[in-house]
Target: Peptide ABC transporter ATP-binding protein
Amino acid sequence: MALLTIDGVWKRYRHHNVLRGVDLTVDPHEVVCLIGASGSGKSTLLRCVNLLETVDDGAIYLDDQEITDVRANPDQIRQRIGIVFQAYNLFPHMTVLDNITLAPRKVHGVPRTQAEAQARDLLARFGLADKAGTYPDRLSGGQQQRVAIIRALATHPRLLLLDEVTSALDPTLVNEVLGIIRELKQSGMTMILATHEMSFARDIADTICFLDQGTLLEHGPPAQIFDAPQNPRTREFLYG
Model:
């Protein structure tokens, strides 16, 4: 059974169609990479999955539940989906530990001692054990993005969405964030990533999806998409 099903999803802003009938299924433990030019609809699709945007047509299902149903509770659904943005979005007035434990404590009702113990375990796992009491402005960009990923993981999501998480980083810091994503794949986390890192997408993805002007033109295993793309627009995007 698919963990996530996107069925004929359209998203419009006034008269502009940002997503045009997107169909996609994501199986448990699968890693899907969304590729395409800026403005192709990658970020909008992730925001629709996390219900930060409403869909204009079609439906999205998580574990066979239609989460785009108007009767669904968005806050309850978001408890099962983690999302990480390119701009980190950490609370600057809170320490790393408080950033990570806020949602488990306030949304999931986890006792503070338990939430902090779990957060410290995650920080240690990803090489940030000594940063628990640090404020975000004292961290490098790569460290801030790692904390943002850890914050998303702290709620034990069924699905993790990553929106261009390396695009705001200095090139020397990219690898430390990509290393976390590789470890998450090895641990079986189900992920959808929007990325411009083509070599990383080829390396980590089970499925590559090429979006062009809101349409999912082609999808398949990395070897198929990168070595033998079928659609002329895919070939143009990859090879110029």
User: Anything to note?
Assistant: DSSP finds nine helices and ten strands in the chain. The mean pLDDT is 94.
